[in-house]
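okkk here we go again. third time trying to get the magnesium ion bound version out, last two times i messed up the smiles copy paste (missing a bracket lol). double checked this time i swear
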Amino acid sequence: MKLTKVILVTYPEDFILNEGKQLVLSIPNYEIVKIFTQKYLNHAKYGIGSGKAEEITQFVQQTTGIEEIIVDNHLTSKQIYNLEKLIGVTVKDRERLILDIFFTRATTVEAKLQIQLAEIEYEMPRIREKAKLLSNSKERAGKGGMGEYIVDVHFRDLKRQMSFIREKLNDAKLKRKIYQYQRQKIKMYIVSLVGYTSSGKTTLFNLLTDESKEISPNLFTTLSTTTRSLKDSPHSKNITKKGGEGILIVDTVGFISRLPPYMIDAFKSTLEESIVADLILLLLDSSEEIEDMRIKYLNCLQILEELNVDKSKLVIVFTKVDKIDKRIISEIVRKLEISKNNNSNNNIIWISSKTGYGIHKLKTLFMKKQLLQTTHENKNVNL
Ligand SMILES: Nc1nc2c(ncn2[C@@H]2O[C@H](COP(=O)(O)OP(=O)(O)OP(=O)(O)O)[C@@H](O)[C@H]2O)c(=O)[nH]1
Ligand SMILES: [Mg+2]
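finally!!
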C-alpha cells in the first residue's frame, strides 16, 4: 500500500493533539511526517498564522513527497485556497478529514446516504466562495454574471440531491420505527451502547450477542446501528437461562468532540435508536488519562442532552479495566464527578470485554432493570 505523507497542524493541548493524530491515522494509508502546533487556528488569511504558514512552506520545500496538509479545525474555502496557493500541496480541514474517514468506512446504504448528506452540507456554504476564487476570467461569480448563474444551477442541483437523500433516509427511518413498534409490542427490553469512538462498544456488543462485527483501534470503525438479542456467553454461564430473554442490544456510531451540528444531524436518525432504548450504557475507556476521560465523558453527556436522552436511563460503563490498576477506580469516579453530572450515581459498572470481568454483573443489571420495568408496567395496567 502506497503511503500518503501528510503534515498535521493542530492545537498544542495533549487531548486535541492526540485526537487529531488518531483521526489522521484512521485513514489507512496516511503517514504523519510532522506535526505543527498553534494556539489559534482562526486567523483570517490562512486559519493558521502567517508565520506558521511560512514555516510549513519551508518544511514542505525541504522534504520530499509531502502530499497533504491537514488543519485540525474548520477552514473556509478562502483559507484553504490561500494555503494551497502558498504551500503548493492539498489542504484539508478537520471536517473534510472526518468526512473522508466516514467515506472509507461506510458499508450500509443508510450510512452512505448520511455521509452524502453531510458532504453536501459541507459543500453548500463553500460553493459561492469557491466559484469566486477559481474564476480567473473576467467573468466573476458576482451578481448578474454567468458565474452566478452556474453557481445557482449547482446550488439548485445540490438542494435537489439533498431532498432526494432525505426522502430515502426517511424511508429507512420509517422502517426502523416499524421495527421499534414491533419490539415494543412484544415487550422487548432494549439496551443501547453509546460512547466515544473506540470506547469498546462493538467489542462488548460482540461479546453480549455472539456477533463478529468489525472492531479496531481506529476511530469510527462502526458507522451504522446494529441490533441483536442478548446471548449466553462463556463469562456468564446460566445467566440467560434464568432470565434475560427478550433483551436486545444496540451498537451505535461513536461520538467525537468538535463535531459540527450538521454532522450530528446527518447521523441523528441512527442515534435516535439510542433514545428509545430502555437502558443506555455510556461506555468510557478507563485506560485513558483521567483528563481525557473527563473531556470525553462531558462531550458524550452534551451530545446525549442534545438528543434529549432521559438521564435516568443512563448507566456508566468503564471499559478495558484489564488495562488499569484497579486501585485507581475510586480516583477516576471522584475526578469525573459522575454523581454530579448523572442522576443515577449508583449505576456505574467496570468491565473488560477481553477478560470477561464485570460482564456477569452487567447482564444481571439488565435483567433486574427489565424485571423492574415489567413490574412497573403491570402496576400501571392494574391502576
Ligand atoms: N484491552 C482491551 N481492549 C479492548 C477492550 N474492549 C475493546 N478493546 C479494544 O479497543 C479498541 C476499540 O474497540 P471497538 O469495540 O472497535 O470500539 P468502538 O467503541 O466500537 O469504536 P467505534 O466503532 O469506532 O465507535 C479495539 O482495538 C478493541 O480491541 C477491553 O476490554 N480490553
Ligand atoms: Mg464500533
